[in-house]
Amino acid sequence: MTAPAAETTTPPLDSSPADGGDYSAEKRIGRLAVITLGWWAHGGVRFLLAAAMLYYGFAKLVLGQFGVADAGDALITQGEMSPMGMLWRMVAFSPLFQVLAGLAEFGAAIALLWRRSVPLGAVIAAGSMALVFVLNLGYDVPVKQISLALLIMALIVLIPWMPRLARAFVGRGEVPRGPLPTLIPWRPLARVTDILGPIAALGLVALIGYGVSQMYPQRTTDESAPAGVWSVQEDTAEPAVQLADDDRWSRVAFGSTLYGDAAQAQLRLASGDLLTGQYRRTGDTAVELELRPLREPGHSVADYADTEPRTLTLGVEERADGTLHVTGDGVDLVLAPDPSGSMLYDRGFSWGIRPDDPFNR
Questions:
Q1: Count of CB atoms within 10 A of residue 209's CB?
Q2: DSSP codes, 304-354
Q3: Counting C-beta atoms within 10 Å of the first and last residue's C-beta, which end of the chain has fewer, N or C?
Q4: 262-269 and 274-283 strand pairing
């Protein structure tokens, strides 16, 4: 948090009724102490708010909070998604949306740390957190209380400037000058904190930025086979008597965005069941999949992570015609590219109108 201002409107301590002073020295000291304590409480709230906004802002700027939409997540249907999962996929699909949201939160934090721009930072933070709170309510994200608390904190920080804002929007006449946060009214010490405050603020920004950047694994891209969405073209396995027991492959999706050495993967069985997880390239023509059924309601994150995954070690041979021959762990099949299944990721952006616009499916 930046250094306190040295400005104060408190009358000098040696004034008296004879020279125009309105208060005794004791009362003026008491009033100054109350005002200073109020600014310290205010400063504590805005420090916590700024730290939280820095954290969430950086998490979006590095595309870490929501990740990046990837073909390895292509097979799940809308009906299989949770409300939170739908929101996460929607935001992950647009890095532009994530970066702009991150810039709003990061900018609010920077403004909160500089005393002359505190009201601007509080207004931006309040607007951002109001939107986040509505999204958390609408998509049942389990941090509703946190976003509400940050919204309330932003409004608390804005309290000293609310009369000016009200007069600017609905009042008439000149808008008076707003208050300036003053944590230390003693000028000699304020000269020191005027220098140390900005340094401390920059240190906080750097510390949180570095910490958030280390939270998420390194992200790389590998679009070589088997990355993409595939449907089964040939299969040597015999179908089960009952469709519900048929565990032959129907479609499979391999992601191209690697987090560390693993990327997303999904497998749709002939029975309709969906397995989801990740895969690793273990050689030029080999991959290892770790897949689990979809998490069920009431199943905690810890319990779900403890369930034993279905592990498949497969050989993948890319053929000249663009198909894949996949063998190993009881499968021997040929996969063909599924353009319909990857349309969301292949469609791309166009500024102009295309022949098939509006393309809404």
A1: 17
A2: HHHSPPEEEEEEEEE-TTS-EEEEETTEEEEEEE-TTTTHHHHS---SSPP
A3: C
A4: antiparallel
3-state helix, strand, coil in the chain (%, to 5): 45, 20, 35
Cis peptide before 198 (omega within 30 of 0): no
Query: Which among 132, 127, 123, 113 is positioned nearest to 60, based on CA atoms?
Result: 132
Q: Please, where in the chain does CATH 2.40.128 lie?
A: 220-346
Tally helices (H) and strands (E) across the chain. Answer: 9, 9
CA 224 to chain centre: 29
Q: Could you tell me if 209 and 54 are in contact, meaning their C-beta atoms sit under 8 angstroms apart?
A: yes
Per-block average pLDDT, block size 10, for the chain (361 residues)? 43 44 73 85 95 97 95 96 96 96 97 92 97 97 97 96 84 76 74 79 93 92 95 95 95 95 96 97 93 94 93 96 95 96 90 91 87
Q: How far is CA 18 from the centre of its chain?
A: 61
If 0-12 CB within 10 Å is exposed, 13-18 middle and 19+ buried, where does residue 151 land? buried
Backbone angles phi, psi at 56, to 5 degrees: -70, -35
Q: Using CA atoms in the order 261, 263, 267, 273, what is the torsion angle rounded to 10 degrees?
A: 110
3-state secondary structure of 14: coil
Measure the CA–CA gap between 280 and 278, rounded to whole angstroms: 7
How far is residue 13 from each of residues 9, 35, 238, measured CA to CA in Å? 12, 15, 95
CATH code 2.40.128 for 220-346: yes
Beta bridge partners of 267: 252, 275
Q: Are strands 286-293 and 274-283 parallel, antiparallel or unpaired?
A: antiparallel
Contacts of 287 (CB under 8 A, 6+ apart): 226, 254, 279, 280, 281, 313, 314, 316
Residues in contact with 51: Cβ distance below 8 Å, sequence separation at least 6, in sequence order: 109, 204, 208
| pTM to 2 decimal places | 0.84
